[in-house]
Design a protein that fits this description.
Layout lengths: L8 H7 L2 H5 L3 E6 L2 E7 L13 H16 L6 E10 L8 E12 L2 E10 L2 E12 L36
Antiparallel strand pairs: 1-2, 2-4, 3-6, 4-5, 5-6
Length: about 170
């Protein structure tokens, strides 16, 4: 007798990822610390050189990274990422991003993602992850405000006259 199971953490996260799904990115397979995503380069993804804009290739790799690092359960976000573009992708190309966990330690992790067109390497991506702590109320993770988001309301300041030193 088999027991029904709910969606995995990766499936739950990806189903809520409007950005990735809106670009036609598909979650092909996933497991603990791994994910395989697929995307077809559309005309809207091509830049002025008639090649895929690097931002879309990065987004595909980043989405695969997100699926892999969220496979363990706690909400996990990117702490940083790098990409090396090896070859151009073109309109109509089907790109596949395979993410693999390299290390997990404490609340941090390191993941590598290869983006390929068939057997040809298009880009190599390395992502660094950080699991987010749950709030004291439980359930909802606390994500601190970004550097451009004030933590408290600020009052407008009056312009000041430039000083001799600032001229």
């Amino acid at each position: 007798m088999s027991q029904a199971t709910g969606p995995t953490p990766t499936e739950t996260m990806f189903s809520a990822d409007e950005a990735s799904r809106g670009l036609g990115i598909e979650l092909v397979e996933h497991g603990e610390g791994t994910a395989l995503l697929r995307m077809t380069v559309t005309p809207a993804m091509v830049n002025g050189h008639r090649i895929a804009h690097g931002g879309y290739v990065f987004l595909l790799a980043d989405s695969a990274f997100a699926c892999a690092c969220n496979s363990h359960g706690p909400v996990t976000v990117a702490a940083g990422a790098d990409i090396v573009f090896v070859a151009p992708a073109r309109e109509g190309d089907v790109l596949v991003a395979r993410a693999e966990e390299r290390a997990r330690f404490g609340r941090s992790g390191v993941y590598d993602v290869s983006v390929r067109r068939g057997d040809e390497l298009i880009a190599e991506f390395r992502g660094r992850s950080r699991s987010v702590r749950e709030s004291a109320a439980g359930g909802t993770p606390h994500v601190p405000p970004g550097p451009t988001e004030p933590t408290e309301p600020t009052e407008p300041t009056e312009p000041t006259e430039p000083t001799k030193e600032s001229r």
